[in-house]
Design a protein that fits this description.
about 30% helix, 25 strands, about 500 residues, alpha+beta, 8-stranded mixed sheet, single chain, 7-stranded antiparallel sheet, globular
Length: about 500
């Protein structure tokens, strides 16, 4: 039996890809080596442009529990534990969505299954071969080994990706063993938490604002009180002796004391305390994202030591690849469409690699780093610097080469004040969108592509006359007037991203 797509890895990125394929009518099989979803504390939310992206798929409300659309963060954010004042940015590109990774996995598991994905827990890929027609994987499952053949294979199986290793794809970058991070679900003294702001007041140290890490001469500390979940308490230290024994809550408490110079009593969270110790750190980007009929997404393609960007960029990888794979499987992919996955997403990972390494340098111990931080803090008083860093953090500085020169082309579609449903609501079909914002019906605009593109006519002040939006939310073409030259450019954009016109 041949399936369309096998996805190695049932974490957020693999599940997001499965949901994207399902939305396009493509069924996939997800193979996850773990017997059930991990309860280990990892990401504690989504950050940046990906928050708007999940809104485009109708996932924002299930993740937040609120029907309200995403709102930009117009307050403070931290870059390398230095405060960024976002209030002067209009609008701010930074969006936050606090949610533990376990919840994200749960929501995406439900969505992928609803859309036809088959998720096999406890199934591990041990080998693969491929030819020009497909990929065959060797799988070790709970009931023994078997083979599975697919037209495409996607490795979403994490930093230690078996798929990447089996393909022999290099994973260059920087590794250092100085840092040790410790994380746990734990309870802090209730009377130390400000009920109004959620800030943690630590006697002998001061205030730790929720979700905003602090850096001292001895390391880093953060406190994340997730809604409806035990707080996540984390530390980072340098040059610690290696530890062989399993981590304990007492170990985290001792680490917090060294970092903050003050005692922080911690109690086990109800239902058990999940503990995690990670020695060393890595920032790496794979040599290539594609080999034949096999692709890499998420941590299989890139890992970052600092900044908490891995999940944000991984989910964006999945959405970028999903619609392109679906088009190829339907026989509608224009030449070069699948190759554009790597040409668009690998530069984005290299950009985040730069961000990660810069933050790691600014978080390191030492008087010279403290001096650098003081100087850098002065630069953060300039709005242009804040804007530059905010866009880098959000991922909104990325502009794809779509072949169109309009300022909006290649960027994620902005929030538009339409006289009807929001763009995010229109995008939930996962199909390309052509927004005719003149308010006048124009049946001759794209008659040969309406089988693959949804045409929406609306009015919108201070907006282009029309925009072509790809399924991943990026603008492929835009025009301020629908003159003959613009219409010709639209036909070229449709041919490049959607395929030849229907005859």
């Amino acid at each position: 039996m041949t399936v369309d797509v096998v996805i190695a890895g049932g974490g957020p990125n693999g599940l997001m890809l499965a949901a994207e394929l399902g939305l396009a009518g493509i069924r996939s099989v997800v193979l996850e080596s773990l017997p059930e979803p991990s309860q280990e504390p990892k990401a504690n939310g989504l950050l940046g442009q990906v928050v708007r992206l999940v809104d485009h798929r109708g996932l924002h409300e299930p993740l937040t529990g609120s029907p309200e659309p995403p709102r930009p963060n117009n307050g403070y954010f931290m870059f390398a534990a230095l405060p960024l004042d976002l209030s002067g940015l209009s609008p701010s590109p930074v969006h936050n969505l606090p949610a533990p990774q376990q919840k994200i996995v749960g929501v995406l598991t439900d969505r992928a299954a609803e859309l036809g994905a088959e998720i096999r827990w406890g199934h591990r890929i041990t080998g693969l071969t491929q030819d020009e027609d497909g990929v065959t994987v060797e799988v070790d499952g709970p009931e023994g080994g078997y083979q599975l053949t697919a037209r495409y294979l996607v490795g979403a199986d994490g930093a230690h990706s078996v798929v990447r290793k089996l393909l022999g794809i290099g994973f260059p970058g920087l590794a250092q063993d100085r840092a040790t991070s410790r994380t746990a679900h734990a309870e802090v003294p209730a009377d130390w938490v400000d009920a109004a702001t959620g800030a943690l007041h630590v006697p002998g140290f001061g205030v730790v604002r929720p979700f905003l890490p602090v850096r001292t001469e001895h390391g880093g500390f953060s406190y994340a009180p997730l809604p409806g979940q035990p707080a996540i308490v984390s530390t980072a230290e340098w040059d610690q002796p290696p530890a062989e024994d399993p981590m304990t809550l007492a170990e985290l408490q001792a680490s917090a004391r060294r970092v903050l110079g003050a005692d922080l009593p911690l109690r086990p969270a109800p239902g058990g305390t999940l503990l995690r110790r990670l020695p060393g750190s890595h920032t790496r980007v794979a040599d290539r994202y594609r080999q034949g009929r096999v692709f890499l997404v998420g941590d299989a393609a890139h890992v970052f030591a600092a900044g908490g960007q891995g999940l944000n960029i991984g989910l964006t990888d999945a959405v970028n690849l999903g619609w392109k794979l679906a088009a190829a499987l339907r026989g509608q992919a224009p030449p070069g469409l699948l190759d554009s996955y790597e040409s668009e997403r690998r530069p984005a990972a290299l950009r985040v690699s730069l961000l990660s390494q810069a933050q790691s340098a600014l978080l390191a111990p030492g008087a010279e780093v403290t001096a650098l931080r003081e100087l850098f803090g002065e630069l953060l008083g300039h709005p242009s610097t804040v804007r530059h860093l905010a866009e880098l953090i959000a991922g909104s500085d990325i502009r794809y080469d779509t072949g169109d020169t309009h300022p909006l082309s290649g960027r994620f579609v902005p929030d538009l004040d339409l006289d009807g449903p929001r763009v995010a609501e229109l995008a939930r079909t996962g199909r390309p969108l052509l927004l005719n914002l003149t308010g006048d019906e124009d049946p001759a605009l794209i008659p040969q592509w309406t089988d693959r593109v949804d045409v929406i006519t609306a009015r919108c002040p201070n907006a282009p006359a029309a925009l072509l939006i790809r399924p991943d939310g990026y603008v492929a073409w835009a025009a301020d007037e629908l003159d003959p030259v613009a219409r010709q450019a639209l036909s070229a954009a449709l041919t490049r991203w959607v395929g030849e016109a229907r005859r």
